[in-house]
Structures are given as C-alpha cells and as structure tokens.
Amino acid sequence: MPNLAQNFASLLSVFLFAMVCSLTITPLVRAHALKSGAIDVPDSRRIHLVPTPRWGGIAVYVSILLTVLCIAAVSPWLRLSLTSAMPKLVGLGLGATVLLAVGVRDDRKGVSPGVKLAAEMSAAILFVLVGGGIKSLFGIHLGYLSVPATIFWVVALINAFNMIDGLDGLASGLAIIMSTTLVLLSVRAGAIVPALILASVAGALGGFLCYNFNPASIFLGDSGSLFIGFLMATLSVAISDKGSAATTILVPILALGLPFTELILTTVRRLLGIVRVVRSREENVSYVFRIVGRAALFTPDRNHIHHRLLARGLTSRRAVLVLYAACLTVNAGAFILATENRTHQSLLIMFFLLALIACIRALGYDELQPLRKGLLLPLLPMQLLKRKSLRAAVDLTFAFLSLLAANWIHIPGSGGHVIDGYLTSKFLSIAIVQTILLGVGGLYHRDFPVVDTEDVLVLVRSISFASLGTWALCEIFGPFLIPGLEVMVLDLCILAALLGAFRFSFILMDYSFNGTNRNNPPVVMVAQKSTPRP
C-alpha cells in the first residue's frame, strides 16, 4: 500500500491530467454549443451583457470520465481501489449521467422544475440503491430514516450548487475549493476512491475555470451545476462514513457551507416573504400572521448572496473573489474541525455561527429581520399569558434552566453531570421555591407584560424575594442543596435576566415593529355590522 507521500503524488497527477483534459475539451464544447444554440441570452435577471454559450458541464464531465478511465488503465493499485468500489462508482456514474442529460436539455430548450426535481431524486435513489447513504447523525444510528435523510441531503446540495451559479467563475471556483478540502479530508479518513474522484473534479474544474472566469467565454450551465452538486453531496457522505461520530455530518456541512447557506437563505426568505404580521385588535395589542400570496420557491430572482454583493457596489469580479475568500475560510475551519478536540470544535462552531449571523445581517435581507417584521409578536399571545398558572410554569422553567446554566458555567464540562437524577431533583426543588417566592412578591398579581413603573417595581421586588429565599436556603442547607455560593450568585443573575427579558420582550418587539412601520401601521380594520335605520 503506498504511503502518504505517494498518495498525494498520485492525486496531484490525477488533478493535472484532468486539468489538461478540460483545457483541451472546453473549446471544442464551446464551439459545439454555439452551433447548437445552447446560448445564455442576457435579460433583466442576468448579470452578463453578451450572449454566452453554455454546456460547460459536458467538458467537465468528459474530463472526469477520461481521467478515471486512465487511472484504471495506468496504475494497478489505483485500479484495484476503483474495482473494489465498482457498485458505488456505477451508481455515481449513472446518477451524474442522468443529471447531465437533464442539464444539457435545460441549457438548450428549458426544463420544468418538476422534471429537474424528479431527475435529482432519481439520482439520489440510485446512490442509495448502490449502498450509499447517511448512516448516522452525531453518533445516532438512523436506521430506516437513512434513506429519506440521504435523498434530502443530495437533492438539497444539487439545488444549492445550482443557485450559486450566478456569476462568472463563481460555482466552478467554489467547487474547486470545496473539492480540494474534501480531498484532504478523504486522505485523512483513508477514503482513497472519493479522493481520486474529487481530485479529478477539482482538476477538470480548474481547467474549465480558465474559460469561465470573468469575462467568461462559456458557462457551466445546469449541465454542470446539477451533476457537480450531486458528486459533492454523495462523495461528502462517503467521506463522513469514514470519520468520527462527532464530526460525521458537521464537517461536510461546513465544507459545503456556502452553497448550503445559500439554499437555506433562499428558502427561508422566500417563505417569509409572503408572511405579514398585523395588529388584529388595537385594545388588546394582539398580533396575528397573514399569508399574502404563495411562496415562489422555484422562481429565479436577484436576491441571492452574489446579487446582494453586487447591490452593495462590488463589481462582478470582486464579488466572486470575496466569496472565494469566504469559502476558503469556511473550508479551513472544516478541516480544523475534523482534526481538533471537542473543546476547540465547540468554540469553532460558535465562532462560525456568530460570523454567519453577522454576514447575513450585513447582506440586508429584510425578510430575515424578525424584530422589524414583527415575526415574534404573534408567538406571544396576550390572552394565553394572562393566565397566572402559565406564567408561573414559564418562570419555573426559567428558574430550573438558570440553575443548570450556572452550574455548567461554574464547573466547565459539567453538562453530563447535570443530567444526574439527584442533582436535577435538587435544582428542581430550588426552582419551585423560587417560583413560589416570586408569587409572594406579587409578580403574578400583575398583568403581562410590564407596561408601567409599578410593574417594574413589582418585578424587582419579586426577584429580591427569590434572591433572599435562595440565600436563606444556602445558609441553612449549604452545599447539600446548592453546590457553592458562586453557583447561587450566577443563578440569580441569570434568572433575573430571563425574567426581565421575558416580560419586557413584547414591549420591545412591539416598539421595534411599530417604529419601523410608523408611516404605514399594519392595522387590520374589521368591518362592523351596522344596524339598519328604522
């Protein structure tokens, strides 16, 4: 068995051979596309200004196929590796061919979204039938759920790649970065066959990018984006099967993070775009959802991430380079995630989530601003929260969760011990006492939410009662009930924050929503039946 250096040398040879093939074949495909009429004509939704041939996917597909065949013919040990995985390779080849055929047709004459979806699901089912699939998530065996999970993952990634193919060189360049990362992960996991195919994908796209980068002389088209998305989805699953349970699905998701984020953003914003929040009753300050129209999930628009960057004033080339840099950063994080310990993994995931939220906010999607749109207001029904028993149950939950959080913060890594039955019963007892003391302070004699100064004073008084009661319990029972004074102080701070945030949240959201819509307040006027005059 070759060593690591020989593996990398073989993969580099595969990459270079596929690149040479693509550099040679792409001009031939471009000329054929021009003769056949597979041309992308500029319109109001397009970015380019000159009619440009499509069918770039054919050049990439043929280059990958030729590379794999030459691997099998030249290298005995690589041929042995490919032969051992022949059933899965056949499934991958058939699925990619189906998607290529549909894409070629769509690039020339157009194909309905239903036909595309059927082809995508067929390719995903072929992958499942040859033994591929997501077997577990975070160490949990999926069993029969493996099939729908795999189909969902494959179809989602195919559509994600299709969505990001909107600027010259964007989809092909991002696919090169992602496939290179997946090659490294494959070598690390010992998955040599996925590494070979991914190296050929990266090489073929590298040669194609020479003709596809701005200003592009040929587009990847659906003939390329569909089957490349399929290969990325299926090969990332094959790699994850070789990895540890902790990073089985996180690493592929992060490595393919940019197209996956585009897919989620597009789906969510199109769904939320038809949702309106209106005030249904002025006197009770009640809000409800209204559905306006139907979500156009499969209708193209100019609100993808690359479109938003162009709207910010970036040129097409600079927008592509910015997304390249973002993809490189995310993929570096995916590789680190696969190699670091669990503590660093948690910090890394938290960092990327915060960075993702900041980036989405910077893109300026109005649909994804829940406070301005008032999307959270109908989730706090006033009539229901006027019930004292429900508010007490919510506060009891807050009290229990604050104790768990305080204990976890005070003793890092104690999350597993919190589940211990004895400690949980103690925390639940304290939470019940705190809730009773909140009632003694008069918190449940006031209406929800906090609306005036007296309500604020009652809230402060009730929290003070709960604090004094917890302090007394700590003095009487000591560590037998509360594990340390520090935990008690942390608990009271967290509990006060949760109680205050819960009671002030509606007022803040109401102010934010009505402040944004001050010039056109979304009030529903309900017609009243009039009494006829005698």
Q: What can be said about the biggest beta sheet?
A: 2 strands, antiparallel
Number of domains: 2
- Percent helix among the residues? 55-70%
The global form is: elongated
Strand numbers in spatial order across the main sheet: 1-2
SS field, number of helical segments: 21
Amino-to-carboxy terminus distance = 101 Å
> What is the alpha-carbon Rg in Å?
29 Å
Hey, roughly how much beta strand do the residues contain? under 5%
N-to-C SSE series?
HEEHHHHEEHHHHHHEEHHHHHHHHHH
User: Tally of extended strands?
Assistant: 6
Q: Which regions contain 5 or more consecutive residues with pLDDT less than 50?
A: 413-419, 518-534
**What structural class do the secondary elements suggest?**
mainly alpha
The oligomerization state is: single chain
> What would the average pLDDT be, to the nearest integer?
80
Characteristics of this structure?
two-stranded antiparallel ribbon, mainly alpha, 6 strands, single chain, elongated, 534 residues, two-stranded antiparallel sheet
Short note summarizing the structure:
The protein has helices at residues 4-36, 56-74, 76-84, 86-108, 113-129, 146-164, 170-189, 192-212, 221-240, 250-255, 257-272, 305-311, 316-339, 342-363, 370-373, 382-385, 388-410, 415-418, 421-440, 453-477, 485-516, and strands at residues 39-40, 52-53, 136-137, 140-141, 275-281, 286-291.
Describe the model:
It is elongated and about 80 Å long. Helix 6 packs across helix 9. Strands 1-2 form a two-stranded antiparallel ribbon. Strands 3-4 form a two-stranded antiparallel sheet. The C terminus is likely disordered. By secondary structure, the chain is mainly alpha-helical. It contains 21 helices and six strands. The protein folds into two domains: 241 residues, no CATH class; 136 residues, no CATH class. Helix content is 69%, strand content 4%.
